Structure formats: C-alpha cells, structure tokens
C-alpha cells in the first residue's frame, strides 16, 4: 500500500477519535462535525463529509478512501473532555501538532477518568439541591433536600452502573429522592414537600440534553436535535413519573 | 433577601457544574452565569412579569454571557450555559402538574403542563435569540 493512503487513513483515525470523544462526553453533534472537518482540513484534506447522530458517526473523505462508521453506545457527561478535545483541535488548526502527536494526545484524553470523584459529585449535588430548596422556599427545607438530593444522585449513579438503562435509573433515583423527602416531611424535618422534592431532583434535570438539542437544531442538524430532544423529554418524563408515584402513595 | 438569592444561586450553579465535570478553573464562571440567569429571572418575576417572558429574558442573558466567556476562555459555550439554565428549568410548574395528575384533576394538570412546556420553550427561544444576536454582531464586525 502506498504511504499516501496510509497517511489518509491516519488522518481519518484522528478525526474519528476526536469526534468519538466529544460525542461520548456530551458535546453537541454540530461540534463533532465541525471539529472533524477542521482537523481534516488542517491536515490537507479540504473536502470531507460527515453525518453525525447521537448514536453514530459516519465520516468520509472525497474519493480517496473508504467511508468509515463508528457506533456510539454509551454517552455520559464529562465536559472537561469536550473542552480538552476542543483545545487540541484548535492547536491542530494552528499547525502546532503533528498527526502522531495529535493522536497520542487524543488517546490520552480518551483514557482519562472523570475529573471529579463520585463522592465529590454526590456532595455537590446534595448541597446544590439544598441551595435550590432554599431559593424556592426558605431555610427549613435545606437539610431534608440536601439529604434526599444527595441520596437520589448516588442512587442514579449506582443503578446506572448496575442496569445500563438510563431512563430506569432516572426514574428510580427520583423515586428514592421523592420518597426520602416525603419521609423527612413526615418526621417533621421540612415544611414544604413540593420545594423539597423539586430541589432534590434538580441534579437529575436534563440540562445538557436541552441545550444540546437547541444548539443542534439551530445548526440545522434536525435528526440529531430531535433525538436529543427526545432524550430530554424521556428523562423529564422518567423523573416526573418517579415523583408522581410517591405523591400517589401519599 | 436578594443577597441570599444571589449567593445561593451562585453556589448551586457552580456545584451543578461539578456534576457535568466542568474544568476546575471554570467552575466560578459557570456559577456566575447561573447567578446572573437566576437574578434576572427573580427580578423580573418579582416585578410581576409573565413567567414565560422572564424565563426567556433570563435564558437570553445566560446564553449571551456563555458565548462571551466561551470566546474569552476559548472553550465550548455549552460549558457555561449548561449550569446557567438549570435554575430556570420549570421544576415547580412541572411538579404542580404532576400533583394534579395524581389527584385526577386533569384540567388543572393539563394547563400547568402547558405552562411548563411554554417555559421550556422560552428557554430554547432565549438560547436561539442570543445565537442570532451573536451572528448579527459577527456579520456587523466583518
């Protein structure tokens, strides 16, 4: 095989790896396409085509190579990785990185673990929930919302690891958070059940899916935007059902 | 009162940024974006502006500030807007809608759900308007 084609293959590999990391870490679909095309262009391939949906990437280079496809099955939220790939792509565009260096750095980013450990995230969501409950309804909702918010988020992470069905994990987590809020209300800890429940399910709210859906739709990626919107809607539905179940038990 | 709201929304937004794994040095900024969004919403809602309108204006501010920070720090704008819009999400209205569904009061439930839906739409429109605004500025500059 001639070296020319080898290099093209390597460029495609770098592009796909960058796209894969962004998509798996919760970046927008249009950012994936944009990044891949920019990387390809700065390595001397001005015309590349990509079709990105939240579940897969199709990437092809004009007439020189076979089209490649990769499947994205697991998506999580790690915006640090998105930012890092973004800065790597910027450096490639400036010509600061060779092909091999870029590939090495992307591999490094891909292998990196989550920036914050789980316990810190649980504490963050607990205090965040407490703050929201206070913002909506006063200080006597702080402690119960803190406890149920943290427990709900921990539950979400654990169930999500156990069963790989995101929506079930969200449903279960909001069920637990709502149930705990109700129990603490019965124990006389808080005053306003509604505010406590809203605060404690806040960490589960699909904020990223909403913003991504809007940005994708605006960029003209209708299918990606709609599927992100469906994701956000299903998440909201799962949370709502969990809370409704608790309310109906009461 | 307003100081407490400012402080709490700042802390809450920064902490929610942690859940999304926002880079450490940008947590303060994302907290600030969330604080501005919530303050705008709170101020307008206190002055009896319609919830939908207040959310729209707040989301617009959130997105504008996110784009500004994104250009300043050379990172994706989502990093800032994601924790910024969380306080605006219509949790209360959605909760009330759910409560009425459980109580079999579907008339009230549907009108509340429609309101929650409108508020979510206002968030989306706020983001869109700021994007349009940005493109206009870009075109005007070049």
Question: Could you name the key traits of this structure?
Answer:
heterodimer; A: 250 residues; mainly alpha; 3-stranded antiparallel beta sheet; 70% helix; B: 142 residues; 6 helices; 82% helix; 0% strand
Characterization of this structure:
- The complex is a heterodimer of chains A (250) and B (142).
- With 250 residues, chain A is mainly α.
- Chain A is built from ten helices and three strands, in the order H-H-E-E-E-H-H-H-H-H-H-H-H.
- Chain A folds into two domains: 4-111, no CATH class; 118-249, no CATH class.
- Chain A has helices at residues 3-24, 29-42, 79-94, 99-111, 118-137, 142-162, 166-186, 193-201, 207-218, 222-249; strands at 48-53, 56-61, 68-71.
- Chain A has a three-stranded antiparallel sheet with strand order 1-2-3.
- Chain A is elongated and about 70 Å long.
- By secondary structure, chain B is mostly helical.
- Chain B has one domain (1-141).
- In chain B, 82% of the residues lie in helices and 0% in strands.
- At the A-B interface, helix 3, helix 5, helix 8, helix 9 and helix 10 of A face helix 1, helix 4, helix 5 and helix 6 of B.
- Chain A: It is found in: Cell membrane.
């Amino acid at each position: 095989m001639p070296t020319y084609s080898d290099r093209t293959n390597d460029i495609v590999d770098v592009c796909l790896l960058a796209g894969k990391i962004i998509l798996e870490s919760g970046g927008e679909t249009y950012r994936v396409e944009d990044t891949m095309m920019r990387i390809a262009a700065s390595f001397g391939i001005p015309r590349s085509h990509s079709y990105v949906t939240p579940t897969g990437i199709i990437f092809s280079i004009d007439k020189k190579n076979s089209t490649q496809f990769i499947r994205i099955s697991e998506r999580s939220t790690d915006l640090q990785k998105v930012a890092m790939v973004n800065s790597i792509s910027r450096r490639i565009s400036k010509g600061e990185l060779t092909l091999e260096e870029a590939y090495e750095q992307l591999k490094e980013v891909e292998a990196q673990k989550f920036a914050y450990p789980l316990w810190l995230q649980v504490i963050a969501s607990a205090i965040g929930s407490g703050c929201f409950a206070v913002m909506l309804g006063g200080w006597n909702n702080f402690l119960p919302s803190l406890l149920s918010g943290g427990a709900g988020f921990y539950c979400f992470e654990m169930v999500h690891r156990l069963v790989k069905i995101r929506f079930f994990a969200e449903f279960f987590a909001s069920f637990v958070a709502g149930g705990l809020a109700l129990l603490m209300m019965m124990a006389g800890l808080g005053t306003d059940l509604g505010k406590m429940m809203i605060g404690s399910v806040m960490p589960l709210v699909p904020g990223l899916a909403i913003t991504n859906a809007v940005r994708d739709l605006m960029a003209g990626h209708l299918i990606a935007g709609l599927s992100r919107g469906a994701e956000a809607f299903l998440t909201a539905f799962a949370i709502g059902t969990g809370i409704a179940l608790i309310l109906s038990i009461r | 009162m307003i100081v407490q709201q400012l402080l709490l929304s700042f802390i809450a937004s920064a902490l929610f940024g942690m859940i999304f794994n926002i880079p450490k040095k940008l947590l303060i900024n994302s907290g600030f974006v969330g604080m501005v969004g919530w303050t705008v919403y709170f101020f307008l809602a206190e002055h009896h502006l319609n919830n939908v309108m207040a959310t729209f204006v707040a989301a617009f501010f959130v997105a504008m500030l996110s784009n500004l920070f994104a250009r300043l720090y050379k990172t994706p704008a989502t990093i800032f807007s994601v924790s910024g819009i969380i306080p605006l999400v219509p949790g209360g209205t959605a909760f009330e809608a759910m409560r009425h569904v459980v109580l079999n009061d579907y008339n009230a439930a549907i009108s509340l759900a429609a309101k929650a839906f409108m508020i979510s739409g206002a968030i989306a429109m706020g983001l869109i308007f700021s994007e349009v605004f940005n493109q206009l500025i870009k075109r005007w500059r070049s």
